[in-house]
Amino acid sequence: MTLFLTDPDDPGRIRPPAPPAVFGLPVRTLGLAAHWHSPATGALLAAEVGRQARNLHTHLQRIALWASLGDAPALGAAVIDFWIILGPFGRDLRRRLLHKHATALAECGLIDYLSEHLEHGLDRHDPRNALPGVVLARPVEGSRCFLRAPAKRGATS
Q1: CB atoms < 10 A from the CB of 59, how many?
Q2: Cα–Cα distance between 51 and 123 in angstroms, integer?
Q3: Is the distance from CB of 100 to CB of 92 less than 8 angstroms?
Q4: Residue 14, phi then psi, degrees to nearest 5
Q5: I need a labelling partner for 68 at 20 to 30 A (CA). Which of 1, 45, 51, 57 fits?
Q6: pLDDT tens across 72-103, in order?
Q7: From residue 107, how far is each of 94, 110, 128 by CA, in Å?
Q8: Taking the model in full, what pTM does it have?
Q9: Coil/strand/helix, residue 132
Q10: What are the two backbone dihedrals, phi and then psi, of residue 34, each rounded to the nearest 5 degrees?
Q11: Which residues pair with 14 in a beta bridge?
Q12: Is the torsion defined by CA of 82, 86, 92, 93 positive or negative?
């Protein structure tokens, strides 16, 4: 068993081997290879979105995968997750995604809802975002104001 690896360009340089990855697809492009096109890959990408929500690359891979598989509800869930993480930013990107995937989003009944929220994005606490397959939604019924402002010292009630 080799405990160290040598650099082929510099044989005198010895480096320790990298530990194996816990999760990862062997691609860094937005499009996945044809042999990765399966619902299992979509589940892996959803798990990665849950672990590293700010990785926009994974979001776009997930959207591209479900679009290529023709699964409108899963595509809608991936788009909702992406819009949640974008927050109020990325209006032009949201507009392009809405235009590109309009037929699939209309098929699952999300086109009007997403069009209403094109300018400001989606709130993860909105109960309408809690659809099957959405990873980042945390729905809250009622008011989200849980704490009162602290009273100032010396103030009388």
Answers
A1: 25
A2: 19
A3: no
A4: -115, 135
A5: 51
A6: 999 999 999 999 999 889 899 999 999 999 99
A7: 18, 8, 17
A8: 0.72
A9: coil
A10: -60, -35
A11: 6
A12: negative
